[in-house]
C-alpha cells in the first residue's frame, strides 16, 4: 500500500487545488516515497515527515467535517512543522505551539465520523514504525467513503 495510499489520503483531504497548493509542496506529496528510499541515517527524519503529513491530512478532514477553528490551528502548526529540516526543528515547532493541540480537545464536540478521524489522528501521533503508519493509512482509506461532507454541498447551493 504505502506511497499510493499516502497520496490518495492527501488528494481526498485536500480536494481543492488552492488548499492543496497552500498546504502541500512537492516535498510533502513525495514524503512517503522519500521514506521508502531513505538511507538509514535519514529514516527517523523521513518517518517524522510522513507522520506530520498524514496528521495534516487527517486534521484537515476533521476541520472540514465540522468547520472547527481549533482543527485549522493544529493544521497550521503541523504545516509549519512539516517545513522543518530536522527532527529538532519539528520538535521546536510542535512544543512552541503545544497549546493548539490542547485546545483541540477542549470543548470539542464531534460526531461519530469526527471521533473516528480524531482516533486515526491520535494513532498517527502514536505510530512508531512504517507498518504502524501503513495501518493508519489503510484504516483512513476505509473510513474516507463513509465521511459525509454534504454540508459543503448545502453551502455551495446557498451561495
Q: Strand pairing plus helix content: what structural class?
A: mainly alpha
* Percent range of helical residues: over 70%
| Biggest β-sheet strands, sense, barrel | none
Report the β-strand fraction as a percent range.
under 5%
What integer value in Å does the Rg equal?
A: 15 Å
Count up the helices: 11
- Tally of extended strands? 0
Overall geometry comes to globular
Separation, N- and C-terminal Cα atoms: 39 Å
Could you state the order of secondary-structure elements as H and E?
HHHHHHHHHHH
**What's the pLDDT, averaged over the residues?**
90
Uncertain runs with pLDDT below 50, 5 residues or more?
none
Quick synopsis:
By secondary structure, this protein is mostly helical. The protein has helices spanning 3-13, 17-23, 26-29, 31-37, 43-66, 69-82, 87-96, 98-105, 112-126, 130-143, 150-158.
List keywords for this structure.
mainly alpha; 159 residues
Structural notes for this entry:
With 159 residues, this protein is mainly alpha-helical. The chain is built from eleven helices and no strands. The chain is globular, with a radius of gyration of 15 Å. Helices cover 77% and strands 0% of the residues. The protein has helices at residues 3-13, 17-23, 26-29, 31-37, 43-66, 69-82, 87-96, 98-105, 112-126, 130-143, 150-158. The longest helix is centred in the middle third of the chain and has 24 residues, at 43-66. The mean pLDDT is 90.
Amino acid at each position: 500500500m504505502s506511497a499510493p495510499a499516502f497520496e490518495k489520503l492527501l488528494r481526498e483531504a485536500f480536494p481543492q487545488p488552492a488548499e492543496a497548493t497552500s498546504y502541500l509542496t512537492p516535498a510533502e506529496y513525495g514524503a512517503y516515497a522519500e521514506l521508502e528510499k531513505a538511507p538509514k541515517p535519514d529514516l527517523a527524519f523521513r518517518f517524522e515527515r510522513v507522520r506530520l503529513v498524514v496528521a495534516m491530512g487527517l486534521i484537515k478532514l476533521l476541520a472540514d467535517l465540522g468547520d472547527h477553528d481549533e482543527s485549522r490551528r493544529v493544521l497550521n502548526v503541523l504545516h509549519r512543522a512539516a517545513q522543518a529540516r530536522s527532527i529538532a526543528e519539528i520538535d521546536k515547532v510542535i512544543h512552541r505551539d503545544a497549546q493548539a493541540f490542547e485546545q483541540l480537545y477542549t470543548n470539542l464536540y464531534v460526531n461519530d465520523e469526527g471521533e473516528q478521524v480524531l482516533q486515526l489522528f491520535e494513532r498517527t501521533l502514536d505510530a512508531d514504525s512504517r507498518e504502524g503508519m501503513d495501518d493508519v493509512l489503510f484504516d483512513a482509506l476505509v473510513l474516507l467513503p463513509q465521511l459525509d461532507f454534504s454540508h459543503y454541498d448545502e453551502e455551495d447551493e446557498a451561495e
